[in-house]
Amino acid sequence: MYKKYGPDCSKRVLLTMRNTIRCVKEQLDLERIASLGTGQLQALQSGNPATLICQLVHLDGVVSCAEELQNSGKLACTHDNIIANEARTIAAAARAARHLCRDSGELFGRGLRQLQTCAAEPFQRYSGAMADCSAALPAADGGAADSMQQPAVLEAVDEFGRLNYYRSARGAAAAVRARYGNRGHNQPCTHHGTGRCFITSQNHGYAVDASSVPADWEPLFTNTNDKTNEGLLHKSQPFFSVQFHPEHSAGPEDLEGLFDVFLEAVRRSAAGKRADLPDLISSALTFTPETPVTELRPRKVLLLGSGGLSIGQAGEFDYSGSQAIKALKEEEVQVVLINPNIATVQTSRGMADKVYLLPITPEYVEQVIRAEHPDGILLTFGGQTALNCGVALDRSGVLTKYGVRVLGTPIRSIMETEDRKAFAAKVEQIGERVAPSACAETVQQALDAAAVLGYPVMARAAFALGGLGSGFASNPEGLRALVTTALARSPQVIIDKSLKGWKEVEYEVVRDAYDNCVTVSTDMTTLSCYNKLRTTALKVIRHLGVVGECNIQYALSPDSEQYYIIEVNARLSRSSALASKATGYPLAYVAAKLALNKPLPNLYNSVTGKTTACFEPSLDYCVVKMPRWDLGKFTRVSTKIGSSMKSVGEVMALGRGFEEAFQKAFRMVDNAVSGFDPDVQPPSDELAQPTDKRMFVLAAALKVGYTIDRLYELTRIDKWFLHKMKNIIEHTARLSAHERLSAENLLLAKQLGFSDAQVAHYVGITEQVVSKMRRKLGMHPHVKQVDTVAAEWPATTNYLYLTYNGGSHDVDFPGGATVVLGSGVYRIGSSVEFDWCAVGCLRELRKLGRSTVMVNCNPETVSTDYDMCDRLYFDELSAEVVMDIYRLESPEGIIISMGGQLPNNMAMQLHRQNARVLGSSPESVDGAENRFKFSRMLDRIGIQQPRWKELTDIDSARRFCEEVGYPCLVRPSYVLSGAAMNVAHSHTDLEVYLREAATVSKEHPVVISKFILEAKEIDVDGVARDGELLCLAVSEHVENAGVHSGDATLVTPPQDLNAATLSSIREIFSSIARELEVTGPFNMQLIAKDNLLKVIECNVRVSRSFPFVSKTLDHDFIAMATRVMVGAPVEPVDVLSGAGGRVGVKVAQFSFSRLAGADVRLGVEMASTGEVACFGENRHEAYLKAMLSTGFRMPRKGILLSIGTFKHKSEFLSSAKILHQLNYKLFASIGTADFYTEHGIPASTTLYLIFL
């Protein structure tokens, strides 16, 4: 029904039809093909005896028909509605014209020579006929006995499941209503002859009932989801039909080959030959692998992890590996995992059958293969580390020697994608192109290549991750520096012609061993050629022979549809995890199944539970991924961002509009930022030279009136995004311009992603006032599902987000669950170890039969895998959002102690709003986090600490430092990883550091304490119940105090602490637990010097070392803490001395190679991006394994010695003698060289002077 369009409704219909005709003409350039006015498409060329006829509703005839209906009064509005039948007739005529004209274009593009319309006459005189779903085909001679006399017929079934040819020539076939209607560009159809599944565009609510068609017809295609018919094939005559659009201009082109089949049938018919359509179609759609493919049933599979988290290779591989383990165990395959990253979920008990915390190097992996005898190995779930190791194992013959089969993508395909020269040649074989480039293995080769390509150029290292060693050069000097660095890490460098300013587009591609292939992409917002790139992606991945999941990246011209292929990663990647979380499609899980040669159509969509996994997700929401940089933690580091990755983490925001998701993402990245704030940075040249603060510069530029065109020229950011950003800045001005906040402005602000605090800032009121007003107006967010199918199919998904651009909730709220807050974005100081804690908490709650709710915003995590909990809210970790969820869910309580510092910082805010926090009370949390309160408490209960003073003013701080003597430590409250914590050595240092600390700790006190030199630091982790200590673990630091605990090397069980010291530690720890009334996990750091123990700090939450001590001591501290917080019974345990006689050593993973110019010296503010840990019979064995796991390699020829004090030189003397005996060449600075020469290391043979 058309409702209430007014008295000129019929004229509007006619106008719409004429516009449709105009659009069709423009799209297909039909004026060039033929004149429509005559009702015929004249031959473009002559001389070909084959003549194709298309039953065509003429475009001009559509308008004439409509005008006739209007003049007769049949289109007049009656009872406020247009008569539906006539309206449907016109709409159907328009569709017929549009579809058939497009189909005609497809046929001409495939070499068709002549096309005519036909009259109502028998069509056997023609070579072929193509009928649209809305047209009646002229009657055929049903009695023709010889099928070679029949023309080939391709017909489309209409949206009501009616097939005209059946009615006119073979009798009626019944129609059935599709259960939910098949509409969209991602409908999977299975071909009956080959069993392969193809993605098609459809728009129909009915289908032909396959069981009712005459006996001489058979199904050709079936919808893989609802099993309705999508095409029929005549068993003997050259007739076939489909109910989808093989060539839809805005949809997949998977079955465009049907036009080629049709034309070949036409040619055969014209030549008097038998068309044999079944054979033609099967031949066109059959995939023949190089070797026969069968499903694999390996007994045991070796899975390579990714090692320590680093820039470019982070927590996303913990998610990928965990998904792979889950998939393999469902198939009853034993899984052996090698991964030294002890903080990961995948290395937890209950995941893999066996876990080896060993370096991922060919030598160690071969030892595991020799011991375990696996049938297969998976290389694509551990990032570049696993991939490079697998390639080395293959080249050395290890895999062949032990009969280990590479599962999934073959090694040959991996090497073709990693070797840039081989990749370019492979891509060119199928007519595609990479950017103009050349490969080089020396600096001079690179300079010669750049001279040919022309500057600027980009240099990239092969076999590298995250753009390591890459950059742009505008002259030979710059290129020489880049290439020298790149060749230090890789044997090959690629010199590319610069494509700065082009769009970068990524597709995730899934392919099984039977050539079923789909893409999963979120880069669709501004693409007009999405499907063109999709088709190219499938072609490239098929040509490479990838089996499983991979990633293809393009450079796309902003001014045309020209593109170049940048690269293919034949493995799971960062974007794989992002695409999985953004769409709900579990790429890693599916890839692991496909590695066993399972057919993709046979796997189910885990969200719907009924539809196939051979589909492409639909999104009815917007996704924004935003990186986090921690460049401020490093001195002298370059803040420019470019082709070499520098971010340490990322967030993903969901909303019903770009503005909403965009502003959410800012707050997810940094809880100190309110959103797209124009007042953070002033306009500067960072618009053209991007830095980590560029987006704030862009906001400021919009505020001061930069035009969209000017910003586009400076940034090359698509104008669509710039307009959306401008919407936000315009509303900030609107809010600031009014003294009172109106309901309309508040609602628009919330729909544009403004937080309550953000609105309050611009209006000039408090956050509490805005929040109260919003709730009084009944203005609250609605809960929406991420269901992979945009509500096209029913889904019972628990994957949720909040939006103010909705009118109802997608779920009900039964109440009574336990909410667990995750860690948020990965940053230096808060990484995968806190995700391990959150996941462990969720698992224990489930074991206890409790319903769970997870709130997190990090796509790299296992905790945001929707089957880890009963409900997952992928949203902000802010007090406002958490309270919105709390009010909706009515939970039993919230656990804040498992996600690190970010949830802990919300303790008092949640408490003030009457949220029930489980475990230690918010007052206990505040008593530990507030430096002043904690130091005063230690004084009160008689526990020693370094001398301290609360900052009140600069003068008193200077007097304190003069009194105790420098160095002194500046310590802000409520911070993570030592943020803004610094050691001051002078009054000048003190003033600078106090300003920094006051900035990051605005609402909480800053404390100054005496910094004790040459002291030993000790970490203590434990669990308490109502202040009673239940268990504890003690870890020694190898480095002296002054190196942040996250950067230090830790050893547990302690090797150098005597029983008396351990007893004192236990007493201090117990006293603090009692005073703070701790219930749950907590952590403490102490320093030891001259047989005295002094407390540095205490955190009433989990710490980074909880996974390390839990796995080393073989006791799950998180499970115990979870049980304590929910009141389940727990007995005290003593695990301090360890288990099985093993020693664990944890070593930090640094990413300084990514951070040009950064000072690599360690201090009290954390600098590492990850960690590894290994076990050994003693600390030396464990330490060596752990160091090798970070990428350290034993030196082969020379070693540089530069050792500071006389004491340290003396301590290292025995080691220096051992190195000399091992025939190492020892290079040294002058003072170090003099010392060791004097102590018997012959300078004449092995000692060399260098000047530092």
UniProtKB/TrEMBL annotation:
Ligase in keyword set: yes
InterPro entries: ATP-grasp, ATP_grasp_subdomain_1, CarbamoylP_synth_lsu_oligo_sf, Class_I_gatase-like, CPAse_ATP-bd, CPSase_dom, CPSase_lsu, CPSase_lsu_oligo
Any one GO MF annotation of this record: carbamoyl-phosphate synthase (glutamine-hydrolyzing) activity
Taxonomic superkingdom: Eukaryota
Lipid metabolism in keyword set: no
Record SUPFAM superfamilies: Carbamoyl phosphate synthetase, large subunit connection domain, Class I glutamine amidotransferase-like, Glutathione synthetase ATP-binding domain-like, Methylglyoxal synthase-like, PreATP-grasp domain
GO cellular component: cytosol
Record-given protein name: CAD protein
Source organism of this protein record: Amphibalanus amphitrite
